[in-house]
Structure to design on (332 residues):
């Protein structure tokens, strides 16, 4: 098969790779669409020791099952493979499974390829009316869904306002999820003017309070019940700590850099909850997929499609900040 392979920092090659070998309980999927995630970019830049070269990246996938009793079925892929039997899995917190694996990280190759093998329990049928490139958004949107659900369950009083730092797919997905859960006032901070325009057309609820602004335009004394840090740098964490309302919740979903920016004194004195959030549970993934299929998260017309063979250029464009769309989807 052909695959886009990470060969080292800022180096990608499109070439032949071994076909996947099916294990018991797995299905073979012809990949039709796979999004570029921030974690793929971290690997591309050489910042993720969990993803050593050479490696096929990509975990935001949708495609068509080939062979077996479900031959021809259109599916979206939950890339998080868990044991299903440990205490966390049994409790419905399978994203915390100690033996969890995710495609695009050894020992599992990713989905920037023509073919992918996955456990059958990890695929969800996509209705005929939903394009597979939109179904591939289930993975990044599930990250935002999971973070938003956790925040809303914790905040007191119930969250009526939210600040989302970062207007990429994770931040936008968080905003769409928060609106779906009933948050009335959402501000998204995004420095890219073209991306702000796209966010403005994404259908984040119906209330006039939903808006995307430049970070410098955020009033210094503004505070929010919920703050989502979808960037994960010291500067964004400092901003989150500053703008969280007393008794509020910060959900930290970005993986930009590992340390710095946390104002532990303010978090303590104002009883602000700071929560790390990783991926999603299998229930979150199913609920996100259903919301996509039902149109509950808007039209999802904010992605950009490119050929997998042009993937190296797509990574380069993202590195150089030449991309306005919150998400690039690669199609083999």
């Amino acid at each position: 098969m052909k695959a886009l392979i990470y060969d080292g920092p800022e180096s990608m090659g499109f070439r032949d790779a071994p076909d996947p070998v099916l294990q018991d309980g797995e299905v073979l999927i012809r990949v039709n669409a796979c999004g570029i995630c921030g974690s793929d970019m971290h690997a591309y830049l050489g910042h993720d020791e969990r993803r050593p070269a050479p490696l096929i990246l990509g975990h935001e996938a949708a495609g068509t099952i080939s062979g077996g009793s479900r031959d021809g079925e259109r599916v979206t892929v939950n890339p998080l493979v868990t044991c299903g039997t440990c205490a966390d899995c049994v409790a419905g917190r399978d994203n915390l499974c100690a033996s969890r694996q995710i495609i695009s990280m050894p020992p599992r190759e990713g989905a920037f390829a023509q073919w992918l093998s996955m456990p059958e329990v990890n695929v969800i049928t996509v209705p005929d009316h939903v394009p597979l490139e939109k179904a591939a958004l289930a993975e990044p949107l599930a990250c935002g869904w999971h973070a938003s659900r956790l925040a809303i369950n914790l905040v007191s009083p119930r969250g009526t306002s939210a600040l989302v730092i970062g207007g990429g797919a994770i931040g936008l997905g968080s905003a769409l999820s928060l609106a779906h859960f009933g948050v009335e006032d959402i501000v998204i901070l995004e420095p890219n003017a073209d991306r702000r325009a796209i966010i403005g057309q994404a259908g984040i609820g119906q209330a006039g309070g939903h808006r995307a602004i430049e970070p410098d335009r955020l009033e210094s004394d503004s505070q929010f019940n919920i703050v989502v840090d979808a960037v994960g740098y010291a500067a964004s964490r400092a901003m989150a700590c500053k703008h969280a309302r007393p008794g509020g919740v910060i959900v930290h979903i970005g993986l930009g850099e590992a340390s710095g920016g946390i104002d532990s004194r303010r978090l303590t004195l104002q009883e602000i909850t700071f929560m790390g959030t990783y991926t999603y549970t299998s229930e979150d993934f199913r609920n996100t997929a259903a919301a996509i299929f039902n149109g509950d998260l808007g039209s999802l017309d904010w992605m950009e499609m490119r050929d997998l063979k042009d993937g190296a250029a797509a990574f380069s464009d993202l590195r150089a900040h030449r991309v306005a769309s919150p998400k690039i989807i690669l199609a083999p």
Observations:
- The first strand starts at residue 2 and ends at 8.
- The mean pLDDT is 94.
- The chain has two domains: 2-137+300-331, 141-276.
- The radius of gyration is 19 Å.
